[in-house]
Amino acid sequence: MIGNDIVDIIQSRHESNWQRKGFIQKLFTANEQLMISNALDPEISVWLFWSMKEAAYKIYNRQTRRREYIPKKLICSVLSQDNNCMIGKVNCAQNVYYTKTIFLKESIHTIAVNSLDDLENVIEIENKDIIKDNNGIPYLCNFLSNTFQDVSISHHGRFEKVVTIIKKS
Q: Which segments of 9-167 does DSSP mark as H helices, in order?
């Protein structure tokens, strides 16, 4: 399964005052709050953890078919990081989701998968031949073979990302 989230940094500055009283405490665990406050760029850390939670939630929602507001139940941790890429993990209930975040000058893009190995098999696709089920969950439809493949769609501000996992045989 796959989830993804894109954050337009410029748009987020206009839409959200992440420094307002209670914002951080409402969305992030105590450990996440500590990592944000100790970060060289707290604003980027806020949107990093938010995008990790959103990407993982899309898988959780696909698995459970439940829509819930549970940001503090999605617990983020960083496994490795370099200048423009971070590998992380999000725990929610008994579920573990692995994430890969790409930092660009004007956006943060996070992909979430169930298996760490699947991070290497994610591709970006065009937003076509996608249908949604009754719960609003998107699938790529191959009309010739009548098959469906998990996809994740995210858009924010000037950016849109549509991703899927290519299974290697």
A: 9-15, 23-27, 30-38, 42-64
Per residue in 52-81, pLDDT tens?
Answer: 999 999 999 999 999 999 999 999 999 999
Crossing angle for the helix pair 30-38 and 42-64, nearest 10 degrees?
150
Q: Sorting pLDDT into bands at 50, 70 and 90, what band is 146?
A: confident
User: Which residues are bridge partners to 15 per DSSP?
Assistant: none
Please answer whether residues 97 and 90 qualify as being in contact, where contact means their C-beta atoms are separated by less than 8 angstroms.
Answer: yes
E strands, 82-146, in order: 85-92, 95-103, 107-113, 122-124, 130-132, 138-142
Which amino acid, residue 23?
Answer: F
Non-local CB neighbours of 133 within 8 Å, separated by 6+ positions: 139
